[in-house]
Specification:
alpha/beta; 2 domains; 10 strands; ABC-type transporter activity; transport; ABC_transporter-like_ATP-bd; transmembrane; ABCG_transporters
């Protein structure tokens, strides 16, 4: 217990191994010699560990599969789920979606469990059900449960085996059983009459300045004799207690299955709008440009002593060529912008769930990001074939296949950019969207379509080799006006004017694939870094023990 800012959540993260920043060199965590520590940390916001769209049974079923994916023996996951639902008294909600469950049912959804404010947002009856359920779990499974909680009523307080009261600054004022609180206050010269609740008196003191009461000066009397305990029964735990997991195709399969259910149940509106936007864009663009733009081949025959002049037909052909380039450029860029906006908005929606589950050892960062890549590409793969068919003015299978492949590679690059921006600004979706659009604008600027790359500064020319807009644009131009369209001794005026070599088509394709992979690896790296957030040092004088099979409270006023 303790007032806001005392360090209850930070202490939970220290015990869980999620926070190792700001601790002194003398900070140590000890565990029983003959027991391995398996930790789990549940945050106060249920939507940081529950995924909407799934039923209660599906949520627990996928949790069982992901958590036990390393076990080679056959497990009856359905039996595990039914036993757990019966134990948590939620069997009657098995087929209900988690978003329709009450707050108490959502909260009930290792041998050491850290829960941040499990009763927040609940009425007194629901809160009492939650705490009683946690106590049953701690007794039945020999589990140590540590929960931070704000000012419970007297009945809930005495449900806990141990309370741990923190003052501002992370100072421990009391560690012991609840019914000894009144005597503890009396021993420190603080009067507490029969009409006063001892815990409320202690929390009031915890909110005050240290100099206002003698209990801060006598806090050493409240400490457990840690030295004697650690020397006889405990061993120090070195390194992080966080559970990490490597990339696994089994995890990816289960996660992909779960993500598809969530996406098509909860995000079907955005998927439908994305499909409609693709096709409307194709129809509008096709009817804004005539089919005549594909007729000029841009070829000119070089002859000794030839005269350089343009007929009206040549001038018209030049205009049609420019329109054709604009047509394909607009299609390429507009598709990328649609995907960028949709994915930037939807990506951060379930990342907080991933962050909570990844820290509890469900799956790795790479597993999640590759799974998310596939899930986001499924609606694209549904819309892109029709889009490319509608916009294919050449009516050839070769052009259709190349256009589909190039658009898909650009979309995958754009997807990685949207993931990067969402990861960098996970709590600011608007800023993430602006940042993603800014990156897209830079790639277009370096794309050789608006401004010739040769006219830019040499540093920008070097940077343009990472621009997927440039690589895809040059491939489109070569695909239309190169690849043998002009027969010798003719040359393509379009490629010559843009200083594009006909031979760079396949190297550009390979380069584009490399940029796509590089951006994805960068997203995975950034995603891993986001999980290790920075913490300020606000704990001091922490000393005590949490025993196996007990329910412990870190409590405080709101």
């Amino acid at each position: 217990m303790g007032p806001s800012g005392a360090g209850k959540t930070t202490l939970l993260k220290c015990l869980n191994g999620q926070n190792n920043r700001g601790l002194s060199d003398r900070s140590m965590i000890y565990a029983i010699n003959n027991r391995n520590i398996r930790l789990c940390f549940i945050k106060s916001n249920v939507w940081e560990h529950l995924l909407s769209g799934l039923t209660v049974r599906q949520t627990l079923l996928y949790a069982s599969r992901l958590k036990n994916s390393r076990i080679t023996s056959q497990l009856n996951h359905n039996k595990i789920v039914w036993d757990l639902m019966s134990e948590l008294v939620i069997s009657d909600t098995a087929d209900n979606r988690v978003e329709t469950c009450s707050g108490g049912e959502q909260k009930r959804i290792p041998n050491m469990l850290c829960i941040d404010e499990p009763t927040s947002g609940l009425d007194s009856n629901a809160a009492e059900v939650i705490i009683n359920c946690l106590k049953v779990l701690s007794r039945r499974h020999g589990m140590t449960i540590i929960a931070s909680i704000h000012q419970p009523n007297n009945d809930i307080l005495h449900t806990f085996d141990t309370v741990y009261v923190l003052a501002k600054g992370g100072v421990c004022l009391y560690s012991g059983v609840p019914h000894h609180l009144r005597q503890h206050l009396k021993d420190n010269g603080i009067e507490c009459n029969e009409n006063q609740v001892p815990i409320e008196v202690l929390l009031t003191i915890a909110s005050k300045d240290k100099s206002n009461t003698t209990i801060f000066n006598n806090k050493h009397e409240n400490d457990v004799n840690c030295e004697s305990i650690t020397q006889t029964n405990l061993r120090p735990v070195f390194g992080s207690l966080s559970i990490s997991k490597r990339f696994s195709f089994v995890d990816m399969y289960y996660l992909l299955s779960r993500s598809l259910i969530h996406t098509f149940r909860c995000q079907w509106v955005s998927l439908l709008l994305q499909f409609i936007c693709f096709q409307m864009l194709a129809i509008v663009m096709k009817y804004c440009f005539t089919a005549d733009i594909i007729l000029p081949d841009g070829c000119v025959e070089l002859e000794f002593g030839a005269e350089c002049y343009q007929t009206e037909a040549d001038i018209l052909n030049e205009k049609l060529i420019k329109l054709n380039i604009k047509y394909n450029t607009c299609l390429l860029l507009s598709v990328a912008f649609v995907v960028l906006i949709v994915m930037s908005v939807t990506f951060g929606s379930d990342f907080r769930v991933f962050r909570s589950q990844q820290q509890n050892g469900w799956y790795s960062t790479g597993t999640y990001l590759w799974c998310r890549t596939i899930v986001d590409l499924i609606p694209v793969l549904m819309a892109l074939p029709l889009f490319c068919w509608l916009t294919n003015l050449y009516n050839t299978m070769t052009f259709y296949v190349f256009a589909f492949a190039l658009n898909l590679l650009v979309i995958m690059c754009t997807q990685s950019v949207s993931q990067l921006s969402a990861l960098l600004f996970i709590n600011e979706p608007k800023v993430a969207l602006i940042f993603a659009i800014l990156i897209q604008v830079v790639t277009v600027f370096l794309g050789n379509s608006l401004i010739p790359v040769k006219e830019l500064h040499y540093t920008l020319q070097a940077l343009s080799h990472l621009s997927y807009s440039r690589l895809s644009f040059e491939c489109f131009v070569i695909m239309i006006y190169g690849l043998g369209r002009c027969q010798a001794p003719q040359i393509s005026t379009v490629l010559y004017g843009m200083e594009i070599d006909d031979d760079i088509f396949w190297p550009n394709i390979v380069h584009l694939v490399g940029v796509c992979v590089l951006l994805k690896l960068l997203a995975v790296s950034v995603g891993s870094g986001v999980l290790g957030g920075k913490e300020k040092r606000i704990l001091c004088g922490i000393c005590g023990a949490f025993t196996s099979g007990s329910l412990n409270a870190l409590m405080g006023s709101s």
